Each structure stands twice: as C-alpha cells, then as structure tokens.
UniProtKB/TrEMBL annotation:
This is ABC transporter related-protein. Residues 14-247 form the ABC transporter domain. Keywords: ATP-binding, Nucleotide-binding, Transport. InterPro entries: AAA+_ATPase (IPR003593), ABC_transporter-like_ATP-bd (IPR003439), Metal_Ion_Import_ABC (IPR050153), P-loop_NTPase (IPR027417). Pfam families: ABC_tran (PF00005). The lineage of its organism: Bacteria, Pseudomonadati, Verrucomicrobiota, Pedosphaerae, Pedosphaerales. One of its GO terms (molecular function) is ATP binding. Gene3D superfamilies: P-loop containing nucleotide triphosphate hydrolases. It comes from Pedosphaera parvula (strain Ellin514). The keyword Transport applies. PROSITE patterns: ABC_TRANSPORTER_2. Belongs to the ABC transporter superfamily. Signal peptide: none annotated.
C-alpha cells in the first residue's frame, strides 16, 4: 500500500512494445507487447517455433528488433542495465574435455575488469560455496564441469546467473527430465530462489502442469501474445487452442483422467 518511491524496484523490469523480428523475410515476432511488473514469476508458453527464445534474446539485447521498443528497468539502452539481468540458457554444449571445475567456471563470473587479481580468493570461494549451497549443489564445488549430469549443469548455470545478484532472471526451459529424484524440482527451485532473491523471473516453459503450479502470470506466445493472465485464466482449452492452434488438454483435465 506504500506510495511509489525511489527504491531500486520502482521501475518496471520489462516493457516491450510492438516488438517485431523477421528471419529471411519470415516474421517470427509480429508485434509483441507486454509488461512484467516487479516480483512476478512469469511463464512464457507457446508451441515450438513460436518465438519464445527469440523474444528472450531480444530482451538480452542479443537479437536486434526490426521494429518496436524494449525497456528494462525503464532503460532502452539494454547494455546499460545488463548487469541487473541474469540468463540461464536452454542448454550449454560442453566438450567432455572442457577442463574447468565448477569453482573455476563460477569464478569467471566474478571477474571484475579492474580488481580481479586483487580480489581475495577466499571471498570468491565463500560466495561460490554459499550460492551453490543455496541451490542445493555445494558438493559440486570441485567437480569438473564437463562431467556433470544435465540437471547438475543446469543448477550450476543458475548459480552462475545468481552470483552477480541480478534483479531480473530470464530462463529458457532446460531439457525435459533433468530433475534428480528426491531433490526439489527445477520449478520448485526457481520458485524458491525467486522469493529468496526477490527476483522478477521470466521462464520459457513447455510444462503446463508446472506453470499452473508455480507461475504467478502466464503469457501465451504465437508470434504475438495470444493471451495472458493468471494460470487459471490462460490454461484453459479456449486460450490454449488460440495459442497452440490445436486442441491441448488444459492442465486441470489431467487430474481427472485417472
Ligand atoms: N538466427 C536465426 N536465423 C533464422 N531463423 C531463426 C533464427 N533464430 C530463430 N529462427 C527461427 O525463428 C522461429 C522461432 O524460433 P524460436 O527459437 O524463437 O522458437 P521457440 O518458441 O523458442 O521454439 P522451441 O519451443 O522449439 O524452443 C523458428 O522458426 C526458428 O527456426
């Protein structure tokens, strides 16, 4: 109920207006407009090839838009605010001979242009250990990165993105089935760190049951934002048909199958 004030979160993390991208004359994003307020866990859903990764890449300034405007934290020069943004890619292709350990890989993230050599190794290690512990993978500290399982690597990539204390986290859904039995699922982990770090999260997802359970808001993308709202509002047969163009069983129905 407090009045707007000048705290760090007073600007809207993400605003996109009429964003357009084409590849070889083929429009992929055909006028995408949306806003993400602070503290949301937003799921971005849509069929294969609907432009979800392209949209994340636009938000990261990695993909040039042919029209429209993107502002992060009120800033349209995205490079100026990239230090406030973390990104976890869909996958990272690593050669088995890649030699860095988890610790060495994460230390790269903490490298500062001026004081890297003067930064205490002890402090770096403490921060790395604390971040790994936060996401439940501290024992991986000394393991070679190239030997990790898909789920372990995904968690290390999350740690990598969290080390610089981002305010906005963009995640492209990991390959299905990376969760280790007995551990919290990828989605539970994201929901946990979102609260812990007071983050705004945009998560590209194909797992509608997880979206239903954990997202606070959903955008269905198919070249444009077809529908948006709470999971209850978006994950129903009509909205999903609009987004996917085919009949997709809404999440609630899965419960009634048995
Ligand atoms: N750099 C590129 N050059 C040419 N075409 C591209 C490029 N990047 C993406 N595309 C095309 O744009 C469309 C959207 O791709 P994008 O990866 O954004 O979809 P997506 O919704 O993330 O798909 P998925 O759910 O399969 O990961 C696809 O047809 C893809 O082939």
């Amino acid at each position: 109920m407090s009045a707007p004030c000048c705290n760090a979160h007073s600007t809207v993390p993400v605003e996109a207006r009429d964003v357009r991208v084409s590849f070889d004359g083929q429009p992929v994003l055909r006028g995408v407009t949306f806003t993400v307020p602070h503290g949301q866990l937003v799921a971005l859903i849509g069929p294969n090839g609907s432009g979800k990764t392209t949209l994340l890449r636009c938000l990261l300034g990695l993909q040039k838009v042919s029209a429209g405007e993107i502002k992060l934290f009120g800033q349209s020069d995205l490079q100026k605010v990239m230090h406030r943004v973390g990104y976890v890619p869909q996958r990272l292709a690593l050669d088995r001979s890649f030699v860095l350990s988890v610790r060495e890989f994460l230390a790269l993230r903490l490298r500062k242009t001026n004081n890297w050599f003067w930064q205490s190794h002890k402090r770096t290690d403490e921060l790395i250990r604390a971040t790994l512990a936060e996401i439940g993978v501290e024992p991986l500290f000394d393991r070679p990165l190239a030997q990790l399982s898909g789920g372990q690597l995904q968690r290390v990539l999350i740690a990598f993105s969290l080390l610089t204390k981002p305010e906005l986290l963009l995640l492209d859904e990991p390959t299905a089935g990376v969760d280790t039995p007995g551990e919290e699922t990828f989605y539970e982990l994201i929901a946990h760190i979102q609260k812990q770090y007071h983050l705004t999260v945009i998560l590209v997802s194909h797992d509608l049951s997880m979206v239903y359970r954990h997202a606070s808001h959903v955008f269905a993308l198919n070249g444009v934002i077809c529908c948006e709202g709470t999971p209850e509002q978006v994950l129903n047969a009509d909205s999903l048909k609009q987004a996917y163009g085919i009949h997709v069983s809404p999440y609630e129905h899965h419960h009634h199958v048995h």
